[in-house]
Each structure stands twice: as C-alpha cells, then as structure tokens.
Design brief:
single chain, 332 residues, alpha/beta, Quinone Oxidoreductase, Chain A, domain 1, Rossmann fold, 2 domains, seven-stranded mixed beta sheet, 9 helices, 18 strands, 27% strand, globular, binds zinc ion
Length: 332
Amino acid sequence: MKAMVLEKQGALLIEQDLPIPEPGAGQVLVKVYACGVCRTDLHVADGDLKYPKLPLIIGHEIAGEVVKLGNGVKKLNIGDRVGVPWLGYTCGKCSYCLRGMENLCENAKFTGYTINGGYAEYTVADERFCFPIPPEYPFENAAPLLCAGLIGYRSFKIAQQSCRGSIKKLGIYGFGAAAHIISQIAIFKGIDVYAFTRSGDTEAQKFAKSLGCIWAGNSDIKPDDTLDAAIIFAPVGSLVPLALKAVDKGGAVICGGIHMSDIPGFPYDILWEERTIRSVANLTREDGIELLSIAPEVPVKTFITKYPLNKANEALSDLRKGKLHGAAVLIP
Ligand SMILES: [Zn+2]
Ligand SMILES: [Zn+2]
C-alpha cells in the first residue's frame, strides 16, 4: 500500500510502499477512503508532541470501509463504513477508565501518534474504537467529524457543564475545522456564536458569518455583548486572558487544543467571580456516539479541501499557514 510516513520529527513525510497490515485479535482492516488533516498532525510532525512511535503513519480522522476481520471481532462486518478517531485503545482497568474518564486512560494508545494512522491506503483499528459513519455523509465529509468535530463537541459539552447548561452567547477563538463544525451545532441549539479570528482574516470572518455566526471579528476585539463561555481552538496562549475578559461572571474558557504556546500572566480579577479555565483532552467513545447522532440531525455540513494522499505535506503546510477554511482531507 501507499503510505505517507514520518521517519523523524521536524522532517517532511515520505511516500513509501508498505505491506498491507494484518488485523490482530479484535481488530479490523480498514480501506481508507478519506483521512482528515488535523492540527495535532502538525504538532506530531513538528515535534511539539514528544515520543511518537517512529516510523509513524500519522492521521486520526479516518473514514473508510471494513475489508477484513481479525480473530474475535464481534461488532463489525465486512463492508461496514467506519470512522477511526484519535483514541485508538484504552485499557478499561485503570482508575480513569473505571471512573468513566477513558479519555485520560493511563495506557491509552492514540491513532497516528503511538499507533499507525490513516495517511495510507489501509490501516488496522480496534473494533471497539470504530464509529459507524452516518449514511448521510460521504467518507470525505465524515472525516473531519472524527477529530475536529469530536474535540469541538467535547469542548462544547464541557463548556455547557461548566455553565450549568445555560450558554446563550458562545465565543470561539480560532475559526478552523473544529470551529466550523461546533458552531453549526451551537447555532442549531439556539446559541449566538461569536467567531474570533487572526487579526485581519476577513475570509475566515466571512466564512463564520455564512454559517450563521452572529458576530465575527479579530481576536483582540471585545464585542459589545458579554459571553457566557468561550472555546479556544487556536494554539495561542495569549488568547486565554483575552477570552477571560470577554466572559461573564461564572463563565468558562475552554482550551480545546492539545498544545498551546505559554499563557501570559494576567490580573486575578479577570478570573475572579467564579470564571473557570479548563482544558479538554482526547475524547471518550460516548462523545463519538453523541456527535455522530446529532450531526445528521443539525445537519452539520463539513467544508473540505481535498488533497491526494501524496500531497500530505502540502496539506500540512497550508494548515500551518492558516490558508484553509474548513478542513483539509486526504484522499488515498
Ligand atoms: Zn485505562
Ligand atoms: Zn485531531
């Protein structure tokens, strides 16, 4: 099979011919029809996230079809359309798994980071961590739901929990793949969404407005309305104090990224009055099931730019430069 392989962090991916992997016990072989390109892929390729398996096939927004079953596979059948997310394995035994926090599992394995992922024609996946793709979604439109959608959904869920379900005005900092999905869900739920972008990124602001966001502007501007909560997807620590200043008493600032630059010091009074800052890590299978059931109901429309598999380096570079609106998707 053709695969784009990371041999060393900080280097470009290399196109290689590799044997098609064999599914082990409890695993399925998936023919990859689409794999989304996520900011986390950049952090793995660039070395912001340490100790990946090397050499590594990155990619954790995999949409494809089951073509072979390993021993003991119970749930899936050949021909099933499945999505494979970042969370690739959990132990089910550690204290986090036992408390329903499998996203924090001590022994977790992550697709496209500590196990091979989807920048390839085939991949193997643990059947317990494959989600059914709703029939409404072609593979390439489903792919961005599997991480951008999921991390957005989990961030939104945690923002709602932090605000006791009372969000009326939600700010989103960094209007890329995750933001464009979760803003549609929030608007569907009757919430006003305020989109904050890099200074002067009028394209992204226009895109946000076209999706129904009530306000769009530069991230250093404070809108006239006070927000109930804010989610930060951009990996920029200096947005944390800006978002804190924009949220109301009791409000929440949720950091959705896996990596962020340092957060600068800020006066205590912008945190005081029970504002919270919280990060979001990974996903649980429950998040996946919930998102994939609400997405066709909204219905969430994913905006994608397709690249052939062997143009993965270009796709990553366009993401790094902020040239994409919506999500990049590789098509093997
Ligand atoms: Zn565990
Ligand atoms: Zn991701």
